[in-house]
Request: fold
Amino acid sequence: MEPSCNKIPERRSFLRIADQVILKYRKVKDLQALPGTQRPPADISSFTIKARFFAINQKLRPARAKLEQQSRELAAYLKAIDEKLDLLADLAFETEHDLIDMPTRQVDLSAGGTSFHAEKPLELGTLLELWLLLLPSHAGIVTYANVVYCKRNRDPEDERYPYKIGVEFRNMREEDMDLIICHVLKKEADERRLAKKNARKEGQ
Reply:
């Protein structure tokens, strides 16, 4: 099930987490030279389908909440429909994309941008087309990003990725920004619950 939240914080770009995601990217030409520059890259349907589901669910959330209050049976039915759609989306994704088999990358993620470790350096200002797969929801986002810093790690944890790259998202869809924020909020909540659980165990 994709991450969800009832209210998106206004200062959302300041929310940031360390996370494990699947990520790939490629260099592209100047954004102004690309067709449809007022929009992110063209939809890759099976890759971004869960992100599209999330956007639809956010729009329907108020109406759905009212319906679920009226009937437990209807609430259970709608939940089952969501689960069916998720299964179909997962099947379509696994059939068409090889990203699911790629190793995860450690990133610092926010709605404004991300940083990640890389094999080779990238020049400042380089424009990237970036594919980002959030876990465990498998919600995929395709967007543009500009390189804002590139530095060599003195003692990299993984010698295959000696460089750390920081990027800012460009022309990202509003609903994809909301998806990232909800993902961040959910991960923060999960980490707090785990910390409390471990604290209780240590206190026993």
